[in-house]
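FW: tagging you since you asked about this chain on Friday. Here's the raw sequence from the shared folder, copied in full. Didn't touch anything.
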Amino acid sequence: NPVTGLLPASKEQNDAWVRDNVYSILSVWGLGMAYRKNADRDEDKAKAYELEQSVVKLMRGVLHCMLRQVDKVEKFKHSQSTKDCLHAKYNTSTCSTVVGDDQWGHLQVDATSLFLLCLAEMTAAGLRIVFTLDEVAFIQNLVFYIEAAYKVADYGMWERGDKTNQGIPELNASSVGMAKAALEAIDELDLFGAHGGPRSVIHVLPDDVEHCQSILYSMLPRASTSKEIDAGLLSIISYPAFAVEDITLVNATKNEILTKLQGRYGCCRFLRDGYKTPREDPNRLHYDSTELKLFENIECEWPVFWTYLVIDGVFNGDQVQVQEYREAIEGIIIRGKHGIHLMPELYAVPYDKIEEEHHNPHTVDRIPLGKTPHLWAQSLYILGSLLAEFLFWLNPKK
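HL: got it, structure written out here
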C-alpha cells in the first residue's frame, strides 16, 4: 500500500498479517544489502537506498498498526488474556483492526517477537525505523509484552492454537523460541543507531531470556502439548531465530520434521492438519473434537519449509542440502508470465484421490491451492536464492 507500506495477503484478501509482512520484506532487505555490498555505480547505490526505504516503510507500517493498540499492550502485561493482546492482522489501507478481539486467534507471541527480532537486526544494520522517544518507549513495552512468552499460552504461528482447532491456546515452542531470539537481539540496542543516547536504548532482563531457553529446551523436539512435531520449528532451530545453541537438539528436531512431515511437495505443518484438505469444512472456524482422524495422511504440503531448509544449508555451509532443496523447489514451483517463478501456498490432495493417498501416502500427484504467490514463501525463496548464489560463488569447486 503506498500510504501505509503494508502488503496485503493477496489480491482477494486485503488484510495485512504481521508475520507475513515481516517475512515478505526480508527478501527486499536482502536484495538491498546485496546492492549495497556491490554498489560500484551510482544507480546501484540509488537502488539499494530505494529498497532499504521500502523496508523502513513497511516496518513502520506494522509499528503504526501496533501503536494504535497501545492500550492493549498495557492491559496484556497484567492480564495475559487472549482478548487483551495485539491483533494478528490489520487493514492494509488504514492500519485499523479488521475483526473483533474474540473473532480470531490474535494472541501470537511469535509474530510480535519476529517483528522485534527483525527490527533489531535492521536497526543494527543501519536502517532507521524508530524515529521518536515515544516509539522507543512503545518498543520497550513490546519487550515487556513478550518477555513472559515461556509461560503464555497462545495460538501459535498457525493461528489455531491446540491441534484440535477448537480455539484453545497452548504453550508453543515456536513462540517461546522466537521470543528468546528477539529478547537477545534487542537487548542493549540503541534504536536511534549512531545518533542515539541512553534514553533510546532497550533493556531486557537476563532472567527472561534464561526462562525462555530452559522452557524451550525442555519442550523440543515437541512443538506443544498437542503437536508432537511442527515444521514451523525450522524457524526456531535455524533462520531467522537461531534460538537453540544445542546442536544435538537442533539435529533431533530437524530429523523429526524431515522424517514425519516431509513429502513430495514440501512439509506438512503438523500431523493431522486439516487446513485446506478436501475433507475440511471451510464454513466452520473450528473442528469437532473427533474430526482429526479424517485428515490423517492427506495433510497439505507447504513448499515454504523447503525455503527454510535452503537457508539452513547456507548457514551451515552444507552445499549438498542447499542444492537438494533448490532442485526440489524447482520441481514444484509455478512458472508465471514472462518466466517468473511463483511459490504457491500449499499442495493439496485432489478430492477424487483422497482414499488412494490415505492408504498409500506420498503417491498421489497434488494440486496447488491457496495464494499464488504466497508472499511469505516467495520472499524466503528469493532470499534463499540470493544466499545460495553467494555461497556457491565463495566455493565454486564444491
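FW: The mean pLDDT is 93.
HL: agreed, and Residues 113 and 179 are 5 Å apart (CA to CA).
FW: great, closing this out.
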